[in-house]
Amino acid sequence: AGTVRYKTKIAVIGAGQAGLSAAYHLKKMGFRTGPDFIVLDEAPRPGGAWQSRWDSLTLSTVNRIHDLPGMSFEETIATGETEVRANVAVPHYFDLYEKKFGLQVYRPIKVEKVSLHGERFYIDTSSTAFSAQGIINATGTWESPYIPEYPGAELFQGEQLHTRNFRKADYFKGKHVIIVGAGISAIQLLDQISKVTSTTWVTRRPPEFREGPFDDMAGRMAVATVDKRVRQGLLPLSVVSVTGLPVTPEIKDMEKRGVLKRFPMFREITKDGVKWEDGKEEKADVILWNTGFRWSLSHLDPVLPREETGGIIMSGRLATEVSKEPKIHLLGYGPSASTIGANRAGSAAARELVKTLGI
Ligand code: FAD
Hints:
The protein is α/β, with parallel strands linked by helices. The chain is 24% helix and 20% strand.
């Protein structure tokens, strides 16, 4: 009570690929930044989660960065080189994008809690308080690293790190590293770390390698699988987890070097390593969990209707609309969790929310 709230019609939370795409479409529909819509982001600079990714992730090792609407990534960045760091190139692109289209982003502002008061959402943040009629949430997953629970984790005297903490392979020199996970990040980090030190690779299931290039058909099928799940209110799988791993020259080289030897998941963590079901133990200095991310949605807990599964029933074009609360749209959740998906979802969410609010 007594808080002065800056009033707007739509609050876009997060200025990554998804949030910027939504902002672009709102602006194109004639809405003004400020009284009509605001974009809030907790990061200090443009770039979404890309600004936090490790230095060795280059434009040749990412899958593909899709253009934001209305501005070509390749033409804007125009280096022609593939060894450019993604954590430099993408933030630069986003920065130029925000300027070109006059998309004012209020940063760094972290949204802490969204609650409903009558017809309006109250948005409490690390600084100013806001109120809005509708929410487009595009907060990604980077802030929510996931590490599964294993007995003994608290006993381990080495270091437990997550993909999110990885900066440089050199950090691991001289240490024995257990690398957990079967996704793209796990494989890429295993490749780099195994070149400077000894590694053991463990995964819950064997990784699924995909022969041949990743074509549009495979992409559409992956998106359709996740789309179907969220419309039923099931927890989405990450799009990447259903696309399989491409067999790259790096992977062939890892096979040759013998580092792609996979062990099943261990049963427990000990003081100085891990122990498997059959009693075999291994010492380790670091356990590096490449076990993915969850959706960063906790600030929406008071207003987001969840199913028993923990999922949210989604509807609308590209499944961005929360069925039981259509004044909230979620981007980058489920089928739109990729740069191309986030892009399209921005357009769908802007149109649908404007229609729902009748503004
Ligand atoms: P983000 O880029 O994560 O943006 C979310 C924004 O929300 C951030 O700026 C953050 O600061 C802000 N935020 C979060 N919480 C709050 C809060 N409470 N208050 C205010 N602001 C908040 N996809 C591809 O299509 N091609 C690739 O090659 C590719 N490579 C990848 C490589 C790695 C290592 C990883 C981890 C992912 C990769 N992806 C790739 C996935 C892709 O990065 C994401 O799907 C896409 O960028 C998501 O965009 P987004 O806008 O949803 O989220």
